[in-house]
Amino acid sequence: MDQTFETEQAHLSEVYAKLVSIRDALVEQVEVIQHDAAKDLRDMADEVRIDFGGADETIETLAAIETLNSVIDTYNQYHDFSVEKLGRVSLLLRPTLLRQGTPQDAARPPRSRCLHRSGRRHRRAQGPAHRGLARPIAETYYNQENGETSYEVDGRRRTVSLELRRQFDITRDRLNMYFDTTVAIEDSLLLNALKRQHTEKLQAITATIQREQNEVVRHA
Questions:
Q1: Under DSSP, is residue 181 helix (H, G, I), strand (E, B) or coil?
Q2: 168 sits in which H/E element
Q3: What is the domain partition of the chain in residue ranges?
Q4: Residue 152: which H helix or E strand, with range?
């Protein structure tokens, strides 16, 4: 029995269950917002009396309409916030490759960080669901360096030691495989090759190819 596999599977199951719980709560919250908004708007609209017969009546009518608009704006903001958060959670629930690095600095014990694959692409992606997925520390995983490396956050450069670079292939809450690598494998063809036949020799070959691809991209 692979104890590492069992440990990673247990962690994945726990995280996935939490995400499902958050997603379901958000779906219910959005439905409640839509129901309450529709009811409140109907009730308030019934109370608005359109009367532009005189100055006082006009002012009163415009004030009532402005109040109604304010309520609509509040519901819209609350709805959009919940939908945006739901989009981020739904994105995290999609079958994807997870990457985990273990950076540390000299003053602290080692700590693990799990990264969502889509977070690497969030700068080019469009839409609110992609915002906030990537953290600056993710650069320690993708810069293809083991040992001492660094990343920038809030204008300050932090130096850490990357001890482990681990990649996962998952389907929903099921861990299909994992492998430790010296290079972050991002090429889909290389990843598929590793999924079908994971050997040390093939891993070394794919790592070399990925490293060469990265060099070409950097000098392009």
A1: coil
A2: strand 156-171
A3: 3-92, 94-219
A4: strand 147-153
